[in-house]
Amino acid sequence: MKLKMLFCVFVACFYLLSCDDQDDKYGNYLVATPLTMNLSEFKDDAIAVTDPVPIEVSGKIYAYGNYIFVNDVNRGFHVLDNTDATAPKNIAFIKLEGNYDISIKNNRLYADSYGDLVVMDISDIDNIQMITRVDNAIYDDYGYTFPTYVEWPQADFYEYGDLDYATDAIIGWEVRTEKRLISEFEERSNNATLDNFAVNSAESGAPSTGQGGSLARFKIVDEYLYAVDYSSINIFDISDLNNPQTLEKVWANGTIETIFNQGDLLFLGGTQGMYIYDISTPATPTFVSEFRHGTACDPVVVDGDYAYVTLRGGNVCGGTESGLYVVDISTLETPELKTFYAMSEPYGLGFKGDRLFVCDGSNGLKVFNKALSPNLIQINHFKDINTYDVIPLPNSLLMIGDKVLHQYEYTQDNIRLLSSFQLD
Question: Which domain of life is it from (predicted)?
Fold first, then answer.
């Protein structure tokens, strides 16, 4: 009897030890599975013009005539009548899902929507009309037309099943916790897979062309529209405003985030540097040079012989110290860093005359005198606001941050608040 009991105890211990050994091989991981619907049906419902609605996530701003367009990230643009800058009015919402940027010329609004190029007639702001939609015109070579039109969830595994990228749109995600082999997780982490895309995912124009900020990915120069994506410049001939022609794209030298132009030059801000392209032949931008820095999010503006570049480190932007770079571009072929000013979390920037305006995130708006560039003198710091994007207009300064549009008038040596408009 005792022998039998000892045997049972031995078997039980062996089983428990074996389970422990097995458990050591497994971990709890988040697994995300996409929820889908037909892509054509989804796109048909993606565009509309409605009465004003509350903003969800404020993004970039764009100015055209007496109107300001405020991006609601991935949802469209809010239209504000800014005839009276002290009291702007929210008059409409352009529902444009999958949208991040717009650019306007002669009452034709060009915008991205899920990688398509959309053209609208805004000559009657109370009766905005759809003109055309060019399918897959933007972001179509490096995965940017992955049909996911909602935020990617935080997960350890993404399981796509029989997802068909040509016909399916991802409209949501189911996330659950599952036990998976630790070795499987480590193997996936060490390999470059589709999952990586989940993480990596002020100009003075002519009166007929609107004005965006330094965070813009769209730029109209004369009869051409340039739209930058992950690593290329998409080029459109818009000499016929209603019928944009897609030209051959130009591959850039790095991961691109923003675009700015000065004369016949494009300055592209990327996660690893600033890239200069010659557009004297507008249909075929030609690489001139680059200024490399550590990995960081990077908008750029240029005035004369100096480029002003903000770098924001941390999170997906990289580990570079956040700050403002002043780069000498007097010799275009060899850009040279001259000075660096530490910042907290810089985003957009812009200039008017000798004044440089830098959005430093939750650390407010900073104003510099750049008359002695590359040496800058800080002349003001508006601390109690959250700042994201800024556009210096001829007569006023626009600044957006945390669902609030701030407008300032220029004084002799500084700026003075005109209005703060809450968008929610």
Answer: Bacteria
User: For residue range 226-242, what is the model confidence (pLDDT) as tens digits?
Assistant: 999 878 899 999 999 99
Could you state, in order of their start, the residue ranges of all structural domains in the chain? 56-142+201-422
pLDDT of residue 336: 95
Structure tokens that stand for 295 in this block: 């990995």
Residue from 216, 294, 323, 199 nearest 260 by CA: 216
Q: Where are the alpha helices (DSSP H) in 130-266?
A: 182-190, 196-199
User: For the chain, what percentages of helix, strand and coil (3-state, to nearest 5) are there?
Assistant: 10, 45, 40
For the chain, the C-alpha Rg in angstroms (whole number) is 25
pTM listed for this prediction: 0.76
DSSP string covering 191-216, please? S--TTHHHH-------TTB-EE-TT-
DSSP lists the bridge partners of residue 327 as 307, 337
| 249-265 mean pLDDT | 89
d(CA 328, CA 189): 40
- 108: its two tokens: 């034709």
What is the residue-averaged pLDDT of the chain? Answer: 83
Say yes or no to pLDDT of 379 above 60.
yes
CA angle 22, 27, 31 (to 5 degrees): 130
Q: Which residue has the higher pLDDT, 215 or 170?
A: 215
First to last CA, the chain: 78
pLDDT tens figures, 272-325: 889 999 999 999 999 999 998 755 567 899 999 999 999 887 655 556 678 999
How many other C-beta atoms lie within 10 A of the C-beta of residue 113?
A: 21
d(CA 83, CA 66): 5
Strand 396-401 and strand 389-392: the pairing is: antiparallel
DSSP bridge partners of 309: 300, 325
Q: Give the homologous superfamily in CATH for domain 56-142+201-422.
A: YVTN repeat-like/Quinoprotein amine dehydrogenase (2.130.10.10)
